[in-house]
């Protein structure tokens, strides 16, 4: 390798050195801007908001109209504040897909993709609801579905916390869409929660949802993920 560039720098005149310093400053400023904009792509940790800054509902139901389901943000109580209310008729369609307006980035790599997606549910009646699943979307648009552990049971008229372990240590039950290769292409986003209804349930069900929370295992010294469903 030639040492010509170093020799040229040593003999550079002050004006050229000043120009070089200015160039370095411009480069550093550019680097600072680039780094700042990348910070916007940091994976979410913690609560996924129910409402945007202007108070509008941040969540929607897939196919709400044809499946005759409804979603609204309601005032629940002075202590709890607003919650999401979902109504459905299980005989019209057997599940609901509840999702943020935009998928929420949760992991940039396999090491980060390990945690618990948790939510609070109030179901009336509780026996209309069979299971909660979490849908994750990879970079290509492929979906991976993780199931609620079998141990979670709901009670009518009471809030329950459901925690679904999600990520590389856990086996997904199904995958579809995107590049359909069964391989998780990073980064990945939280796409939706689905509510499966009990077959044979007659009538309408009303559910309330609050505190959708993603807790990476790395942050969860006090949280022990439940045993995943087999
Ligand atoms: Ca894939």
Describe this structure in words.
- With 230 residues, the chain is mostly beta strands.
- It folds into two domains: 4-39; 46-219, Galactose-binding domain-like (Jelly Rolls), CATH 2.60.120.260.
- It has helices at residues 4-10, 14-39; strands at residues 46-47, 59-61, 70-77, 81-88, 95-100, 104-107, 114-124, 129-137, 143-147, 159-167, 174-176, 188-197, 205-216.
- It starts with a helix and ends in a 14-residue tail after the last strand.
Helix-strand layout with pairing:
Blueprint: H1 4-10, H2 14-39, E1 46-47, E2 59-61, E3 70-77, E4 81-88, E5 95-100, E6 104-107, E7 114-124, E8 129-137, E9 143-147, E10 159-167, E11 174-176, E12 188-197, E13 205-216
Antiparallel strand pairs: 1-13, 2-5, 3-4, 4-13, 5-12, 6-12, 7-10, 7-13, 8-9, 8-12, 9-11
């Amino acid at each position: 390798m030639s040492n010509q560039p170093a020799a040229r720098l040593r003999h550079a005149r002050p004006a050229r050195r000043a120009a070089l310093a200015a160039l370095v400053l411009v480069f550093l400023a550019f680097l600072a801007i680039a780094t700042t904009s990348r910070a916007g792509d940091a994976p979410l940790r913690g609560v996924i908001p129910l409402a945007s800054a202007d108070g509008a509902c941040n969540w929607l139901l897939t196919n709400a109209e044809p499946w005759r389901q409804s979603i609204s943000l309601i005032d629940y109580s002075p202590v709890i504040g607003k919650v999401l209310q979902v109504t459905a008729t299980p005989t019209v369609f057997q599940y609901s897909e509840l999702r943020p307006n935009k998928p929420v980035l949760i992991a940039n790599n396999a090491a980060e993709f390990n945690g618990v997606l948790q939510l609070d549910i109030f179901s009336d009646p509780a026996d209309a609801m069979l299971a909660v699943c979490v849908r994750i979307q990879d970079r290509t648009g492929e979906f991976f579905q993780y199931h609620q552990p079998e141990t979670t049971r709901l009670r009518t008229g009471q809030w329950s916390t459901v925690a679904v372990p999600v990520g590389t240590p856990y086996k997904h039950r199904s995958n579809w869409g995107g590049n359909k290769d069964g391989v998780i292409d990073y980064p990945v986003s939280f796409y939706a929660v689905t509510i499966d209804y009990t077959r044979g349930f007659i009538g309408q069900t009303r559910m309330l949802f609050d505190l959708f929370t993603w807790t990476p295992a790395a942050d969860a010294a006090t949280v022990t993920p439940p045993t995943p469903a087999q």
